[in-house]
Amino acid sequence: MSVHLRRRYPRLEINTRKLEENARTEVALLAKSGVSVMGVNKVFCGLTETAAAIVRGGIEVIGDSRIDNLRRLAAIADLQFQKCLLRSPGLSEIPEVVGHADISLNSEVEVLRALSKEARSQGRTHQVMLMIDMGDLREGIWFEDRAAISAAVKELSSLPALSIYGLGTNFNCFGAIRPTLENGRRFVTIARELEKEFGVRFPVLSGGNCTSYHLIEEGTWPEGINQLRIGGLHEFGIEYISMHYVDGFHHSSMDANRAASDLYTLRAEVIEVNDKPTVPVGEPGVDAFLETRTFQDRGVRRRALLAFGRQDLPSANCWPVDPAITIFGQTSDHTLVDVQNCGVPIRVGDEVSFELDYTALLHACNSPGIEKVCLGP
Q1: What per-residue confidence (pLDDT) applies to 257?
Q2: Which of 10, 133, 220, 240 is deepest in the core (most CB within 10 A)?
Q3: Residue among 10, 44, 25 nearest 363 (CA)
């Protein structure tokens, strides 16, 4: 007897085989410059399949900004890796941080003391990456305040049940300050001065995220920095400063002019098809998001209504796989597409597929209304 499995929509398909291959390519590429990878899994909202894929690809530390996501990774019992909390811990979550993260990023002495006390209570040793703000104005002790940096290192070195994982910094997130050879060297200089002052050695100097990769491509990598906390490179195969596709990676298209790659595919069901004008009829006001809209009159067009909306992911960050289809607009729960020029007529019950960029992937993975399906080995 055959069994019919009903497909659920909307559905996000993630090709974990290609993700694993990208991770393997990334690890080998960065190793040529003496740089290891902390694989950032946060865009996938704690999916164990994506974390396992990049671990199989050679990444030994998984980073996430939320404890709940790190907790889910305990289900991966057959692979060895460490877990790092990428967002500085709150005092309210110290027990969970120690219980579910091997490493955390920190800059507050009060939090370090709380981590030490909790780690002793749990009989664990917790590793700390002390963050230095080199100018981007997000987390970290300000790089010019050497007294505060020294005080934090001194405190960290003295606290029981804590160990120094390394020093870290970040670029291009809040202040959009680009990583450069100059600010990278300045960061390394601070690290070397601290090592001399306290007689310690920082095993890891973590020099930022995937936006720092461009320095490797340009041959201007700051000597001494030996780790990057990366998601976008293995997730999309893109260099994020000049925004180009990196050779050797599977790429997820970020524009309508490239062929679909099937790294990440959103499949949506058609729930209505009809011919309607392209300009609304009546007195205009504001839409459901209190925004005014303008419309180009293209006459009566064949259009399809899809069963996902802005609360799932923004249409501005996805592209129809079929180039004959264009996005007409979106409400909270519906996406409207123009199917006038499709070679094969679109009918109710058909599916329309989309390529996603990082923003759309982030929304889709965090939407409970979207089914997540991992396709891989």
Answers
A1: 55
A2: 10
A3: 44
pLDDT lower than 50: segments of the chain: 1-5, 256
What is the number of alpha carbons within 13 Å of residue 107 lying toward its C-beta? 18
What are the residue ranges of helices labelled H in 290-337? none
Q: Mean of the per-residue pLDDT values for the chain?
A: 94
Q: What pLDDT is recorded for position 2?
A: 36
> Long-range CB contacts (< 8 A, 24+ apart) of 76-81?
76/48, 76/51, 76/52, 79/52, 79/55, 81/51, 81/55
What DSSP state is assigned to residue 75?
Answer: G
pLDDT digits (tens, 9 = 90+) for 77-88: 999 999 999 999
pLDDT at residue 142, as a whole number:
98
Q: What string of DSSP letters covers 156-203?
A: HHHSTTEEEEEEE---SSSS-PPP-HHHHHHHHHHHHHHHHHHT---S
* The pair of three-digit structure tokens given for residue 265, joined into one six-digit string: 């595919």
Residue 42 known to be catalytic: yes
- The catalytic residue among 18, 42, 83, 154 is 42
Alpha carbon distance 368, 88 (integer Å): 26
Pair 232, 44: CB distance under 8 Å: no
The identity of residue 137, as a single letter, is L
